[in-house]
Amino acid sequence: MALLAAWLLASSLRFMLVKVGEPMSAASLRWTQTMAFAIEEINQRRDLLPRLKLGYHIRDSCDDIPVSLRSSLLLVSGPPDLNANSACRGVPRPVSPVIIGDAASGVSMAILRTLGSFGIPLVSYFASCNCLSNKKEFPTFMRTMPSDAFQIKAIAKLIRYFHWTWVGVIGVESDYARFAIQLFLEESSKYGACAAYVHFYPVLLSKESIADLMQTIRGSTAKVILNFSGESELQTILTECRRQNMTHIQWIASEAWATAKSLWGEFQGLLTGTLGFAIRKAEIPGLQGFLTRGLLVRAHQSPFFAELWEETFNCKLNVSLNRHVHSDAALSRRPCAEEEEAPEAVRSDYSDVSQLRVSYNVYKAVYLVAQALHDMKWHMCGPRKRPPLLLHYMKQASFNMLGEQVSFDKNGDPIASYDLMNWQKGPDGSLQLVKVGFYDTSLGGEKELVINDTAIWWHWGQQGPPASVCSASCTPGSRKATRKGEPICCFDCLPCTEGEISNETDSLDCRRCSVETWPNEAQDHCVPKTTEFLSYHGSMGIVLCTCSLFGLFVTMAIFGVFVAYRTTPVVRGNNMELSFLLLIFLSVCFLSGLTFIGEPTDWLCRIRYTTFGISFSLCISCILAKTVVVLMAFRATLPDSRVMRWFGPAQQRASVFLCTCIQIVICLIWLTTRPPLAVRNTRHHSSRIILECVVGSDVGFWSVLGYIGLLACLCFLLAFLARKLPDNFNEAKFITFSMLIFFAVWITFIPVYISTSGQYMVAVHIFAILASAFGILLCIFAPKCYIVLLKPEKNTKKQMMLKK
Q1: What does the pLDDT average to over 168-185?
Q2: Partners of 359 in beta bridges
Q3: With 0-12 CB in 10 A as exposed, 13-18 as middle and 19+ as buried, what is 426?
Q4: How far apart are CA 116 and CA 136, in angstroms?
Q5: Which of 92, 203, 741, 754 is spaced 20 to 30 Å from 529 by Cα?
Q6: Using CA atoms, how far apart are residues 582 and 622, in angstroms rounded to an integer?
Q7: Contact yes or no for 61/124 (Cβ under 8 A)
Q8: Domain ranges of the chain
């Protein structure tokens, strides 16, 4: 039966530390015994390496590179006394086929660079630096500890989950911290997070370095701090934080101290609520019994256990193998009593199997080597080129352990899986490491990180996560504007401009609403624009409609008066037929104003403009005919004048029809070429859609107005010439006044009409129609109604024939 030598290089950060005054780490001793337990377990199995037995040799690296290099060289060259008892006598001194260690990334890199020419595989159980995944520089490296690249992705997603965009980042001066922080800065920037500061501090913190760190932390508004270091460095920082009453910090722990219970007793007030990712734990059957079996016997056989025993019971063993002195008080310790058992040791960190995380990595590392040896089926007496072959099988290894599938990627890294741990205070004041989530890269995408928010106990009993931002989030309706020269997490929130919205928090840009929509008051979503037109239901529409109907009523009332008094001289003496026609046409003018009220349609737009143009042409044509009649009447009083014969009632009606026909032709040309249309105007008012009529052809519209103006000018000219004709009731002067009002209205209308829009433009148009119609109605017919109704004594033929 051959003896296979498999060696473990145990990194004892505080285990067998040669510095005086440093306590021994019971956890590191547990790691070494976990390896011994795994080897013993494998050697008892019949299904794994049935013909081989594994052995081991433990060397202490003391977390010191020179010591580690010396120990590793001894392992690969073989102890001097091994060859004498080797099963392979007569062959060269055996080379260790594999080294399990070191715990520290920096020490592992130094060993790998030194042993590179040997081709010896090195399997680390705790070195997590991403730099070790570089196969060109470290081709023989593997680990059962996930790379920091995965831990950093988990931390970055954790920070994004709680919307922490302003995070302080500190770390010890080491390759581990530098690579981890560099990765964190790259990964967190993908999620919009920034580092409020990045501060590296030395392993041995002086007063100046700790003061500099405290000044950096106190001078920042960041409430969340991510720390990459071990327990001892953090202990110094926490002591100073407590002294300066800096208790507002939400700590994010790197994997190196995410489960460091030793920090709790002294700093529980600072660390309550701490979050951190820890490697998955497992329950290893039989390990606790192995750890506590025969401790006193081991203490007399091993300096490691001798130190553990003496530190636990504060006594001195008889003929002690422990050569480490941690304090002056240790020199005067009482002798250990032979009857002492080890209940305290059972309850120490050494035998605590409730958080088997690093120990589980050691356990997996041993089984990885065993599984590779089993697959390769070789024994130690073969050729010396076997280590590279072993490395090949180690990289290909895939096996099930305690319900977990263990495999490795091309860089020799395991599948990353972490537990999210929350530091909570138990009923008895002890630390409760509560699992509140997990991160598993095998799930992929957004499913990798799972968090149970309700299970988290926040710092100082807060109900939710603290806010740690440089600038408060921009609410919907605004956008982010970065500040010049500052990180992207520091920004101002600018409201979206008119017509734009943002419906997301921290939107980078605002987007413009469509033509048919407009932002709501909060500017966080688009709503349909309100349509605007001169409606019968609006106050303005009601007033104008009332005025139009009132004008119609007054016109019809005057028409009734004239019908009732049609035989009187005032009614008969001023061309009664043209007066009746004028009153009818004025009624149409008042009604034409109603076509401008209501929702515009194509047909309504065409009707309103043609009705307006033709009705006013009829009115002005009638007035023009009446003016001509006045002039002709006085010409007819001259001797031998036959003027009235050529401008009798038939000619008067014909002149009205002829003048109106010209306007009808203009309207027909306008309607057949580019007629008025109903449009949805979004130019004048961005927030409203104006339903309006456009004239289609500006030439057609202004031709209609121009022709009405031409007729009005002729009326005014003729009436002005006849205003002083000798008559007791000269109608020409009233026509002159009506035309002056007509001109005043429409000359004022043109600039106001052009400068307004929407319902106000329509209202101006209706006002011009009503004002000019009322002007004609009152100036021409009010004096007659006054005489007919109030001065009947003047309504006689004698009075009409008197000359001034």
Answers
A1: 91
A2: none
A3: exposed
A4: 11
A5: 754
A6: 6
A7: no
A8: 12-78+94-145+353-401, 148-281+417-455, 294-348, 478-527, 539-678+690-794
**Residue 502 has what pLDDT?**
93
Whether residue 58 is predicted with pLDDT greater than 80 in this model: the reply is yes
678-723 pLDDT, tens digit per residue, is 888 877 777 788 888 888 888 998 899 899 989 989 888 888 877 6
* Third-level CATH fold of 12-78+94-145+353-401: Rossmann fold (3.40.50)
When computed from its CA atoms, the radius of gyration of the chain, rounded to whole angstroms, is 52
Q: β-strand 122-124 against 141-143: which pairing, if any?
A: parallel
Nearest residue to 253 (alpha-carbon basis) of 433, 89, 124? 433
Q: Hey, what amino acid is at 220?
A: S
DSSP bridge partners of 55: 5
- Chain centre distance of CA 489: 12
pLDDT band at 35 (very low <50, low <70, confident <90, very high): very high
Mean pLDDT, the chain, integer: 83
Which segments of 377-430 are extended strands (E)?
399-401, 404-406, 417-425
Instruction: Provide the total of helices (H) and of strands (E) in the chain, helices listed first.
Output: 24, 28
The four Cα atoms 341, 343, 344, 350 give a dihedral, to 10 degrees, of 100
The domain 148-281+417-455: what is its CATH number? 3.40.50.2300
Position 153 scores a pLDDT of 93
For range 91-113, the mean pLDDT: 78
pLDDT tens per residue, range 190-218: 888 999 999 999 988 899 999 999 999 99
- DSSP per-residue letters across 613-641: HHHHHHHHHHHHHHHHHHHHHHHHTSTT-
* Residue ranges of E strands in 156-244: 166-172, 194-201, 224-228
**pLDDT at residue number 647:** 60
Q: Which of 167, 318, 315, 312 is nearest to 252 (CA)?
A: 167
**C-alpha span between 90 and 85 (Å, rounded):** 11
Give the per-residue pLDDT at 5: 34
Q: Are 675 and 502 in contact (CB under 8 A)?
A: no
β-strands 315-316, 334-335 pairing: parallel
Closest residue by Cα to residue 329 from 341, 342, 316? 316
Superfamily the domain 539-678+690-794 falls into:
Rhodopsin 7-helix transmembrane proteins (1.20.1070.10)
What is the rounded distance in angstroms from the CA atom of residue 279 to the CA atom of residue 415? 11
How many CA atoms does the CB half-sphere of 243 hold within 13 Å?
A: 9
Q: What's the CA gap between 154 and 720, in Å, rounded?
A: 96
- One fold for both 12-78+94-145+353-401 and 148-281+417-455? yes
What is the distance between the alpha carbons of residues 261 and 258, in angstroms, rounded to a whole number?
9
In this structure, the strands spanning 58-60 and 7-10 are parallel
232: pLDDT strictly greater than 80 = yes
Cα separation, 561 vs 246, in Å, equals: 99
Residue 374 has pLDDT above 90, yes or no: no
Helix spans in 693-730 (H):
698-721
Cα gap 154→281, rounded to integer Å: 17
DSSP assignment string, 567-617: TSHHHHTTTHHHHHHHHHHHHHHHHHGGGGSSS--HHHHHHHHHHHHHHHH
Choice among 58-67, 576-585, 773-782 with the minimum mean pLDDT: 58-67
Helix axes 698-721, 731-755, angle to 10 degrees: 150
150 vs 133: CA distance, rounded Å = 12
Query: What is residue 646's predicted lDDT score, i.e. its pLDDT?
Result: 61
Beta-carbon contacts of 304 under 8 Å, excluding residues fewer than 6 positions away, are 15, 16, 29, 32, 58
DSSP letter for each residue of 55-99: E--EEE-TT-HHHHHHHHHHHHH--TTTGGG-SSTTSPPPPPS-E
Q: What is the pLDDT of residues 621-661, one digit of tens each?
A: 988 888 887 777 665 555 555 555 566 677 778 888 898 89
